[in-house]
Design brief:
The chain is α/β, with parallel strands linked by helices and 265 residues long. It has a single domain (2-264), classed as Rossmann fold (3-Layer(aba) Sandwich), CATH 3.40.50. The protein has 9 helices and 10 strands. The chain has a 7-stranded parallel β-sheet with strand order 1-10-9-6-2-3-5. It has a 3-stranded antiparallel β-sheet with strand order 4-8-7. The longest helix has 20 residues, at 245-264. It is globular, with a radius of gyration of 18 Å. The chain binds 2-amino-2-deoxy-6-O-phosphono-alpha-D-glucopyranose (GLP). 2-amino-2-deoxy-6-O-phosphono-alpha-D-glucopyranose binds next to helix 5.
């Protein structure tokens, strides 16, 4: 894992946006895995600004979101579809037919829909860069603690903690879905590259556990230790509980040294 620590969430957003810019410069028809939540919003704003300045284009990009609430209409402002339209898609030159979220309305067969979502990702050639946030309990997507590390897209029951974290977005308890359809951990691990963003002190414990703790279903993000190309972008508060913090900084210095040597050689 490539652990990068920045002074604040603004710098995290800029570093994340730069990873997306680099990918699209190299592969304009890339497949991006998208995340919701508060954390990526700053990064999305930067990508929107790039599009407005005509320095970036999403016209050939395909996207797959990690998750969506069960039984919610895409037109419901609380849906992750509505979030994506508001925070990104409505402001960039992406072809909306290339934007995908898992979805399962009440009464629909979630097993069939989950399988179709996986098949569509595969048909588009797999995900080049999966963007992730991090739940305070270590979840990625809606893979809650105890999610199987080999899981694929499916329905998950949300924990009380996650319901409380996301309560702010819903008017009352009854309106808040307790189920979500989410890419599985094995689905996420198939992305060619993964970039996780975590900011704020509330994420410090989960960051320590997934980066430095054992791989365990109790901390779903720890499964990222199995992947060979993961970038973790943290601000100071989110990095504050890491035991090997000094080491991550030395690794970065040494990477710069190696890159300079290559240029000189
Ligand atoms: C939500 C989403 C995750 C997101 C996480 C963190 O429940 N399902 O994909 O990464 O929680 O959200 P935030 O960035 O708002 O802290």
């Amino acid at each position: 894992m490539d652990i990068m620590i920045f002074k604040d969430c603004e710098a995290v957003a800029e570093a994340g946006a730069q990873v997306v810019r680099n990918l699209l410069a190299e592969k304009p028809a890339a497949v991006l895995g998208m995340a919701t939540g508060n954390t990526p919003i700053r990064m999305y704003k930067k990508l929107i600004a790039d599009c407005e300045n005509k320095t970036l284009s999403f016209k050939d990009v395909t996207t797959f979101n990690l998750d969506e609430y069960h039984g919610i209409s895409p037109r419901d402002p609380k849906s992750y579809r509505a979030y994506m339209q508001k925070e990104l898609f409505d402001h960039i030159d992406i072809d909306s037919s290339n934007t995908h979220l898992p979805a399962c309305a009440k009464g629909e067969d979630h097993r069939v829909l989950s399988h179709q979502y996986e098949a569509l990702i595969e048909a588009k050639g797999g995900i080049d860069l999966q963007i992730l946030g991090l739940g305070q309990n270590g979840h990625i997507g809606f893979n809650e603690p105890t999610s199987s590390l080999g899981s694929r897209t499916r329905i998950k029951t949300l924990t009380r903690g996650t319901l409380n974290d996301n309560r702010q977005y819903f008017d009352d308890d009854d309106a808040q879905p307790h189920l979500a359809i989410t890419m599985g951990i094995a689905t996420i691990l198939e992305a060619r590259r993964i970039m996780l963003l975590a900011t704020g002190e509330g994420k410090a414990d989960a960051v320590r556990q997934f980066v430095e703790g054992p791989v365990s279903a109790i901390c779903p993000a720890s499964a990222l230790q199995f992947h060979n190309d993961v970038i973790v972008l943290l601000d100071e508060p989110a990095a504050s509980s890491l035991a090997y913090r000094g080491y991550y900084e030395r690794v970065r210095e040494q990477k710069i040294y190696l890159a300079d040597q290559l240029k000189e050689g």
